[in-house]
Amino acid sequence: MTKLWGGRFTESASAQAEAFGASITFDQKLASVDLKGSLAHAQMLFEQGILAQDEWTQIEQGLKQLETTLADHSYTLADEDIHMNLERLLTEQIGPVAGKLHTARSRNDQVATDLHLWMEQHVEALTTALRELQSVITEQAEQHIETVMPGYTHLQRAQPISLAHHLLAYFWMFERDVERLTDNQKRIRKSPLGAGALAGTTFPIDRFRSAELLGFESVYPNSLDAVSDRDFVIEYLGIASTVMMHLSRFCEEIIIWASQEFGFIELSDAFSTGSSMMPQKKNPDFAELIRGKTGRVYGNLMGFLTTMKALPLAYNKDMQEDKEGVFDTADTVLQSVQIFTGMIESATFKTEALKKATMQDFSNATELADYLVTKGIPFREAHEIVGKAVLYCVQNGCFLKDLNLETYQTFHPDITEDVYPLLDPVQAVARRTSYGGTGFAAVSEQLELAKQHLAN
Ligand code: ARG
């Protein structure tokens, strides 16, 4: 088969090298956006008088025909990539006039355009999926404003909190991810089309028109930058890594909470698996798998950053390495968010176990210290006194609420009967009314704010 670029060659390609250089096995994902880009380019060429009416009509019909038969095409390695495969198919369909489509265009600006268009669609889909996850989080939070649970630092019981507060912490992480994706779209919706191979073109093209036809918001002002910029990809891979990092943290907590030792959550059967040997097992496989897949998403970011390192201007074949990592990341992160959403939506929180946990620990120690402060004792001193009381309890196998007044007064004479209600974990949560705190009223306000963000 002769190459579309075969004019200056006398020998045919090495079969192994040809297969090594080809990207068609993976860049066929770009077929639909490639046709879209070609259509806009051809229309602009026609409007600028570069293509004649009948040429434009034939090319337009041919491209539209290829779009409707997209699933049936068979591509060849010999045609290297999706751009040349589609050009050959167009030629088979409409004859030599197809060759005019590539006027004032190079595969360098073509592939960059395709990637911008593909990423735009994906980032939109990922944003929608994250919004759905956030909405499920708010629904679960709504049910659990008054569910108290232990709050942790260093994975040690710290202070009791509202479960809704814990869940909403993740809402805000995903909110920042959505903000980052929205900002990423500004760089994605920028047109490289018409930059040519690197230097622009002698034809009287209108880059703003083709950008407008494709729904881009702006046009790269420098043709060298247009064809060699992959910042928008790296930025996306970084955001996707952050989304996975957030998911992996939530997954880790779910895995711990689903253990028998914690018993804070029951995952639905639909999002759990059994063991082939141990009949009693119900494993949080999907949370583990999402946690695990975070690794490959980070790998794609590091891999492609390294590919781009020290590349001279403008296009270099190295840049063909952008696609597999991006496609893999896109699939992984979108599926992870969707699976995770189903898992959270169908999970049951064990409210009694959560509450019981707060009764059997020292997470009310801060309440006792704060109580002493209200009696005029400096906080440092109060901290020391409570520390001694906790040690006494540890040595005597009880909790702070179990100490009688007589014992309390050996720690400090100002401790009176009014201390006991404050040691109740529900009170400890309710009283944290500061903005952004875990108090029930503060959490209700926070939930309202979260819903407002979702509505926008
Ligand atoms: N398949 C190539 C890529 O993905 C398309 C651009 C090739 N341009 C070139 N001059 N070899 O990057």
Automatic annotation (TrEMBL):
GO terms for molecular function: argininosuccinate lyase activity. Pathway: Amino-acid biosynthesis; L-arginine biosynthesis; L-arginine from L-ornithine and carbamoyl phosphate: step 3/3. Residues 362-430 form the Argininosuccinate lyase C-terminal domain. Pfam families: ASL_C2, Lyase_1. It comes from the Bacteria. Signal peptide: none annotated. PROSITE patterns: FUMARATE_LYASES. It is found in: Cytoplasm. Gene3D superfamilies: Fumarase/aspartase (C-terminal domain), Fumarase/aspartase (Central domain), Fumarase/aspartase (N-terminal domain). It catalyses: 2-(N(omega)-L-arginino)succinate = fumarate + L-arginine. Residues 7-299 form the Fumarate lyase N-terminal domain. Keywords: Amino-acid biosynthesis, Arginine biosynthesis, Cytoplasm, Lyase. SUPFAM superfamilies: L-aspartase-like. The keyword Oxidoreductase does not apply. NCBIfam families: argH. This is Argininosuccinate lyase. The gene is argH. Its main location: cytoplasm. Its EC number is 4.3.2.1. Belongs to the lyase 1 family. Argininosuccinate lyase subfamily. Transmembrane segments: none annotated.
